[in-house]
């Protein structure tokens, strides 16, 4: 989604801003722009399309202070006039987030004779800055943001202040960086990659004033606040392709390492007494998340209910707060998010906390809004994920949630220390728990084997790319893998696709099944296999070609399937971590067969920071 980069330094700002914007390209955007200050008036350059086009247009433009932006259209079409920065009067502004009351604010401005140059909600911020301008830049910002409803991360320049940039945040991430006496601001850490960079994330309601001579932080009342800085070797936050054609393909190969690392970090954490108390008293688990993260919640629900015998529910975060959810002190709410910045997940997590739930965040980005909000964080250690289509982060989420399920199981059985390192020793005492933990520890190797077994997906993709629509079916835990396989496929191949519980097909969707609608069955649970086969036969009888992803060797050779992939067998509750891999690779190969860039799907953004 939208990206922000700002710079105050001794060098020309344009190359710094462009490099930062390039590092944010993976997030998805449709236009880009920058504004520079070089003593006099602003230099504004904006382009629809790629950062490369902006780079050509910005060549030779001077200014040691600047702000840059990649825009993912929400209010107003993708176009040059709607691209940020927006300038009004003495102020240039770039904005991430959504200003919910912009219509009323814009109307007020128009009634007093001001004209607007774009269709965006963001431009109103520049007008407010001008309205409150009495010569003190910080005061103008404080008064302007006080009138905004919604979410914002802002970087602002003011004409006549050629060595100053102000940044402000509420509900949208923003990080200040410093290296060698030069100052940076960015919406995401990868934009600030480089050795020796010191970083300081802003919290909601905070304002940073960056000048060539130093940085100062203020609250919304204008009171000075002290902030902590941490040094990051952010070189590692800017992943390279390392010979792979696409990040998505590379990230699938990184799945075994991601899950091994996630499990290792979970199990080495010192015991946490208050978490143990919470797990012991948990009577109901709600997992709130969106998209792929929600699908990890579907798999986790099966595992928690089966292993801990505690009722669990996977909740679509964007629906959660509108259904007046039932939450009590014995409800454990687990918010799952790769980015930790998804607006819907954050809103659901906030509501759950307000209602008294204990909040666990399962997040891949360590310093995110979600991790700041949570009572306890279970990190996924997948490393930065560039592909918009989540792969390794999904598998890492599964492992984190399975370990949580084992902790809840241990808590239910009366163990006192059920968190992290305590879980490992508890499992050593109990035969069945030990077996389950060993199964989890074996998953990285099984995932590696599944990647090797998925070569055939290239051949499947050649057939799938001309299909009318593609259906994925499965029962129990296999359903969780099926819906994720379907989401992956539609995200990057743009082919219509649905994932269904196999038994649901006959209740309506079967009407759509025919010759040009392949059906992919996921089948790893022997107890349910014949039931799933019934659905497969129903589809074949209507002319569909059926494809199979299975760990059951006796089904892999069955003649009714057009093709099948045999993945290694594992404990059925954990099987989605393995069986999803051929589906991720199928989506990747189908995107290529359709001529699409799998890393940059149209209309989608990596981190969805608007409701
Ligand atoms: C997954 O491929 C998608 N990009 C999307 O569904 C994503 O999982 C969803 O937007 C949630 O993102 P989060 O994990 O960063 O919260």
Mean residue pLDDT:
93
- What would CATH call the architecture of the largest domain? 4-Layer Sandwich
- Uncertain ranges: none
Tally of individual helices: 20
Explain what this protein looks like in three dimensions.
The radius of gyration is 25 Å and the shape is globular. With 611 residues, it is α/β, with parallel strands linked by helices. Helices cover 38% and strands 22% of the residues. It has an eight-stranded antiparallel β-sheet, with helices on one face. A seven-stranded antiparallel β-sheet has the order 5-6-7-8-12-13-14. The chain has three domains: 2-231, Aminohydrolase, N-terminal nucleophile (Ntn) domain (Glutamine Phosphoribosylpyrophosphate, subunit 1, domain 1, 4-Layer Sandwich), CATH 3.60.20; 247-451, Glucose-6-phosphate isomerase like protein, domain 1 (Rossmann fold, 3-Layer(aba) Sandwich); 457-593, Rossmann fold (3-Layer(aba) Sandwich), CATH 3.40.50.10490. Helix 9 (291-308) runs parallel beside helix 13, helix 13 (392-412) packs antiparallel against helix 20 and helix 14 packs across helix 15 (431-453). 2-deoxy-2-amino glucitol-6-phosphate is lined by residues 290-293, 337-339, 342, 345, 388-390, 491, 607-608. Residues 290-293, 337-339, 342, 345, 388-390, 491, 607-608 line the site of 2-deoxy-2-amino glucitol-6-phosphate.
């Amino acid at each position: 989604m939208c990206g922000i980069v700002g710079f105050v330094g001794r060098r020309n700002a344009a190359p710094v801003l462009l490099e930062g914007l390039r590092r944010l390209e993976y997030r998805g955007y449709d236009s880009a722009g920058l504004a520079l200050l070089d003593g006099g008036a602003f230099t504004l350059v904006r382009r629809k399309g790629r950062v490369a086009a902006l780079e050509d247009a910005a060549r030779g433009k001077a200014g040691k202070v600047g702000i840059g932006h990649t825009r993912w259209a929400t209010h107003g079409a993708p176009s040059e006039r709607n691209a940020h920065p927006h300038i009004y009067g003495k102020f240039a502004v770039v904005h991430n987030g959504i200003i919910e009351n912009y219509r009323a604010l814009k109307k007020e401005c128009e009634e007093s004779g001001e004209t607007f140059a774009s269709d965006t909600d963001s431009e109103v911020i520049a007008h407010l800055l001008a309205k409150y301008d009495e010569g003190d830049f910080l005061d103008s910002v404080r008064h302007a943001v006080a009138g905004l409803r919604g979410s914002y991360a802002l970087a602002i320049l003011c004409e006549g202040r050629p060595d100053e940039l102000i940044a402000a945040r509420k509900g949208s991430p923003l990080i200040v960086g410093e290296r060698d006496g030069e100052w940076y601001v960015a919406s995401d850490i990868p934009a600030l990659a480089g050795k020796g960079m010191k970083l300081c994330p802003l919290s909601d309601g905070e304002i940073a004033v960056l000048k060539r001579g130093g940085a100062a932080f203020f609250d919304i009342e204008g009171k000075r606040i002290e902030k902590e800085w941490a040094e990051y070797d952010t070189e590692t936050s800017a992943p390279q392709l390392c010979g792979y054609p696409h990040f998505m393909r590379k990230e699938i190969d990184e799945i075994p390492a991601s899950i091994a690392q996630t499990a290792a970090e979970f199990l080495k954490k010192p015991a946490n007494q208050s978490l143990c108390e919470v797990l012991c008293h948990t009577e109901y688990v709600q997992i709130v998340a969106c998209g792929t993260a929600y699908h990890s919640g579907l798999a986790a629900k099966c595992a928690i209910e089966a292993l801990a015998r505690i009722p669990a529910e996977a909740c679509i975060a964007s629906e959660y707060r509108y259904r007046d959810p039932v939450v009590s002190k014995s409800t454990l709410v687990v918010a799952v998010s790769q980015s930790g910045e998804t607006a819907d997940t954050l809103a659901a997590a906030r509501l759950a906390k307000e209602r008294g739930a204990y909040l666990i965040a399962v997040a891949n980005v360590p310093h995110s809004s979600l991790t700041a909000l949570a009572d306890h964080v279970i990190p996924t250690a997948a490393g930065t994920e560039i592909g918009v289509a989540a792969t390794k982060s999904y598998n890492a989420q599964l492992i984190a949630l399975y370990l949580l399920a084992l902790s809840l199981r241990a808590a239910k059985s009366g163990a006192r220390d059920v968190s992290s390192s305590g879980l490992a020793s508890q499992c050593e005492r109990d035969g069945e728990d030990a077996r389950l933990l060993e199964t989890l520890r074996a998953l990285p190797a099984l995932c590696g084997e599944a990647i090797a077994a998925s070569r055939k997906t290239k051949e499947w993709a050649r057939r799938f790319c001309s299909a009318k629509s593609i259906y994925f079916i499965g029962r129990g835990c296999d359903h969780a893998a099926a819906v994720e396989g379907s989401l992956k496929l539609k995200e990057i191949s743009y082919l219509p696709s649905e994932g269904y519980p196999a038994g649901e097909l006959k209740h309506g969707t079967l009407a759509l099944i025919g010759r040009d609608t392949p059906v992919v069955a996921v089948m790893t649970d022997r107890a349910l296999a014949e039931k799933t086969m019934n659905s497969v036969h129903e589809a074949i009888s209507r002319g569909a070609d059926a494809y199979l992803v299975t760990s059951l060797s006796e089904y892999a050779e069955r003649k009714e399937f057009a093709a099948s992939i045999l993945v290694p067998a594992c404990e059925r509750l954990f099987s989605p971590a393995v069986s999803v891999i051929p589906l991720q690779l199928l989506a990747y190969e189908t995107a290529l067969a359709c001529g699409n860039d799998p890393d940059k799907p149209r209309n989608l953004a990596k981190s969805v920071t608007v409701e």
